[in-house]
Amino acid sequence: MRIFRLLKIQSVAFRFGLDEFFLSHGPLRFLKKPIQWLTFWRNLDRPRGERLRLALEALGPIFVKFGQMLSTRRDLLPHDIADELAKLQDQVPPFSSDIVLTILEKAYGRTVDEVFLRFDKKPVASASVAQVHFAVLHDGTQVAVKVLRPSIAPIIAHDIALMDTGAWLAESLWPDGRRLKLRQVVTEFARHLDDELDLMREAANCSQLRRNFSNSPLLLVPEVYWDYCRDNVMVMERVSGAPISHVDELVEQGIDIPQLARVGVEIFFTQVFRDGYFHADMHPGNIFVGQDGRYIAVDFGIMGTLSDEDKNYLAQNFLAFFRRDYGRVAQAHVEAGWAPKNTRVDDFETAIRAVCEPIFDKPLREISFGRVLFQLFQTSRQFNVEIQPQLVLLQKTLLNIEGLGRDLDPNLDLWKTAKPFLENWMSEQIGLRGLTSRMQKEAPNWAIIFPQFPRLLHHLLSENHNQGLEAKMQLLISESKRQNRLLILVILLLIALLLWQTLL
Fold first, then answer.
1. Considering the entire predicted model, what is its pTM?
2. Phi, psi for 295 (deg, rounded to 5)
3. Most buried of the four, 161, 180, 342, 499, by CB within 10 Å?
């Protein structure tokens, strides 16, 4: 099967002239002219980016999804190709209702009528991995039922294996291929596809995001009905709202559109910096707006996570950008190890300033984050900055936010909207509140460790007691005297913090 799939991929690639991506560079350049003579019948008048997009659409939904993800890696692609890939739409014909009923009956071991009071056979949404039907439980609860496409896993596995082979060839034949880490991109893509193929995992993602925004006036996340969820079936609360792209309908409902745009920015930064856990597929098809003006999120197959180190690095960079402190941006890259230690910070600072300074004090309609990211990646290449695969989804989400903001309010000032939020977050991390929070988190560990101090001290002093016991005692006493004042200050600080917490 794999050989036939490979032949189809080669046929499609050849039909759309994708061979020029490899024959224009490296050791195979000498083949370009002979192949052009032999394939004079091909119509290659369309731009290369458009031909690549059409080829991915012809190869099917998995390649379309990969193209969507690749469009966010402007460090990998020229901007004309990245802009074209950003146009990819994941519109897939639904599979038959008979197959849906068979999948459900096998998953539950009962007939569909026994599980649901009513089940709509016509899907309301269909994507590359699954499709969604509306239903009603026997207690009258209205739900949305997501059903995984049959036999999708082996197809994806074959396509991923072929993509990995293609990435290996590209790294071998494309200049800068190793630095661009194409195989890592495929690996990252495969990891997120694995998440989408397990609907129990998606249900857990949904449940976590709902818990993070419990009782939030900003975002509504549907409830998961765990008793009805399986590996290939997910059942959640049915939510209703207007698609966020239908601005005219939102205006008729009395929604404050500029405020809605600002709330979208706040939701993004809340997910990233407060929780380190964010919805990473925030295109217009997955975002709705309720009658109360809250955002409604659906489709939780792709979620991003950030470590505390990533969040701190990003927050410092964002704040430095907002304050136009480009020297701090450059220094943060070096401190994080993303730029080589021998990087000339002043030169790096100058290059970053040349990219970012022109975009400040401009409304969103005059800024292209895609273009800014591309220029920053070009600067990164110049200074040998390592690409961070864990931030791929964040880049993708930031571009989604740009698109949503531009559609809602072209005059949105992203910088002014985001800066107060980031400053508040940083104060929580490095100020008194941050110290208190971290102490509260570590308190259980201290409760375990402190009672052990006498035993550990006795063990230290009794170990090898014939070898310098007196010297150890003298050293301990001397050190305790030196640290006495500091210890008293620490104890007073702890007491003050505990009293302060008690009074809150």
1. 0.70
2. -70, 145
3. 180
Kindly state the helix (H) or strand (E) to which residue 239 belongs, with its residue range.
none
* 102: Cβ contacts below 8 Å, ≥ 6 apart: none
Pairing of strands 295-297, 219-220: parallel
* R_g of the chain computed on alpha carbons: 28
> What is each CA distance from 166 to 6, 54, 162, 174, 176, in whole angstroms?
10, 18, 6, 11, 15
Q: Which of 242, 295, 243 is nearest to 268 (CA)?
A: 295
- β-strand 242-243 against 287-289: which pairing, if any? antiparallel
pLDDT of the residue at 458? 63
Contacts of residue 301, defined as CB under 8 A and 6 or more positions apart, other chains included, come to 129, 192, 195, 196, 202, 205, 281
Q: Is 242 helix (H, G, I), strand (E, B) or coil?
A: strand
What SS3 string covers 50-80? HHHHHHHHHHCHHHHHHHHHHCCCCCCCCHH
Catalytic residues: 281
The DSSP code for 358 is: G
- Neighbour-count burial for 288-317, b at 16+ CB within 10 Å, e otherwise: bbeeebbbbbbbbbbbbebeeebbbbbbbb
CA 450 to chain centre: 40
CA dihedral sign of residues 230, 99, 196, 206: negative
Cβ neighbours of residue 443 under 8 Å, at least 6 residues apart?
none
What parts of the chain have a pLDDT lower than 50? 483, 486-487, 489, 491, 499, 502-503
In angstroms, rounded to a whole number, what is the distance separating the alpha carbons of residues 143 and 238? 4
